[in-house]
Design a protein that fits this description.
Number of helices: 17
CATH superfamily: MFS general substrate transporter like domains
CATH architecture: Up-down Bundle
Distance between the termini: 32 Å
Largest sheet: none
Number of domains: 1
Helix content: over 70%
């Protein structure tokens, strides 16, 4: 980390801080626990979780461009970041002591919204902390440190509690509660560097009056600019689709495994493998983007995700047709975890830095607000169709096919629009 400035290191450290939420609350521990608590004919857990994701993305999709416009005003960015951070941590502490599936779901929704709002601001800080020629590297290291730190150390502690906690009198419910509290503490403590050392360098002066009107006006004007800038527009539309597939796999992986009755221990260990693999591959993506066009690296990642979907379908379909037993499915799940680890951090890091290179730094908040709205609204497609198909067919393997379509559409748009995406200069 010595090759980074203090601001770059502090910005990277927030990925170390916030990734614990993505792993514990969104990918592994909480989804499996929630499916177990809310299981049954009256409130199937995976369906409820999928619909909650849809609601979250709608809320964030509506609020993101407005938030983006607000944080471009000087003195607003850090203030709102701290407010959302503290609110998210408080909700997690309350959530840890709930037992009904309705309250668990409500806490999950609120904490995820606050966590996501901090992420919008965090992404918009990228042009403030580094230069265009270093964005790929800094962004990739952010994801890499997130995977090796926030996604691994608390995750291992959670695994130990869940798998071996009964030996010391800690049951599954208590283990999950401790994991949620650990998430809140880890998130808060390691957020201190970004609060202390990262500052809003670029921005516009806030009007002395009429801030609300100016916010909506700026958001509207930025939307018009994006439509006129063909490279930015084509990239963000492609991102809209392929990142939906990425997010759907992240959010639904353990719920999918739970529906297939693969067992929590095997899935958790497989996801730990994914986090470990993701660290070097995230850094590798940043280096390879310098050798080859970053758009080539995104294309490669999407193609690997299509392979992942195909293997996931075979795994579920094979169990449904009694082609093989659970042991084979567990092996396939481990293979999927490894493949996801090779691309999950890289595709997100390079997408973020590529967009950062295309937008004016003084308006990064507004542009990243729209970047988030496309990402958030895109995340409605996968979970929604997953829930609909699963509810209609009762077959998880058929539901996973809904994710294939968004990857294919994103790949086609990216391929057709890349001639307009001239990196290194604003389009």
């Amino acid at each position: 980390m010595k090759q980074f400035t203090k601001e770059e290191r502090s910005w990277i450290m927030y990925d170390w801080a916030d990734s614990v939420f993505a792993t514990i609350m969104m990918a592994a521990v909480f989804p499996m626990f929630f499916v177990a608590v809310a299981g049954g004919d009256d409130s199937p857990g995976s369906v409820a979780l999928a619909w909650s994701m849809t609601f979250i993305q709608i809320v964030l999709g509506v609020s993101a461009p407005i938030l983006g416009a607000i944080i471009d005003f000087k003195n607003f960015k850090k203030r709102l970041f701290v407010i959302f951070l503290i609110a998210g941590i408080i909700v997690l502490f309350i959530l840890a002591f709930q037992s009904s599936w309705q309250l668990l779901l409500a806490g999950y929704i609120l904490s995820t919204i606050f966590w996501s709002l901090t992420m919008i601001i965090y992404d918009s800080y990228l042009p403030d902390v580094t230069t265009k020629d270093r964005m790929d590297k800094v962004s990739a290291w952010g994801y890499g440190m997130g995977y090796i730190g926030g996604s691994t150390i608390p995750f291992i502690i959670s695994i130990i509690l869940i798998v071996g906690g009964e030996a010391v009198g800690i049951d599954m419910t208590m283990a999950v509660r401790i994991s949620i509290i650990l998430t809140a503490v880890w998130w808060g403590v390691f957020s201190i560097p970004i609060i202390k050392n990262v500052h809003h360098k670029y921005g516009v002066a806030a009007p002395k009056k009429g801030v609300v009107a100016a916010t909506f006006k700026n958001a509207y004007n930025t939307g018009k600019k994006i439509i006129k800038q063909k490279g930015v527009f084509m990239f963000i539309i492609a991102y809209f689709f392929y990142i939906d597939g990425v997010g759907s796999i992240i959010r639904l992986a353990t719920a999918y495994g739970a529906e297939l009755e693969l067992g929590s221990t095997g899935m958790i260990l497989a996801l730990l493998l994914m986090q470990i693999v993701a660290f070097p591959f995230s850094i590798l993506f940043g280096k390879l983007s310098k050798m080859w066009n970053p758009l080539n690296m995104i294309t490669v990642a999407v193609c690997i995700y299509l392979v992942i979907c195909a293997v996931g379908f075979i795994m579920g379909f094979g169990l449904e047709q009694y082609w093989f037993g659970t042991d084979v499915a567990i092996i396939l799940f481990w293979g999927l975890a490894f493949l996801v680890g090779t691309v999950q951090g890289g595709i997100q890091a390079i997408s973020r830095s590529t967009f950062g290179q295309l937008v004016p730094p003084e308006n990064s908040g507004e542009y990243f607000g729209f970047f988030e709205i496309f990402g958030r609204f895109s995340a409605i497609i996968g979970p929604t169709f997953y829930a609909i198909i699963l509810s209609a067919t009762g077959r998880p393997s058929m539901a996973i096919l809904s994710i294939v379509a968004v990857f294919v559409i994103g790949l086609v748009i990216l391929s057709n629009g890349r001639k307009h995406m001239k990196l290194g200069q604003r389009i």
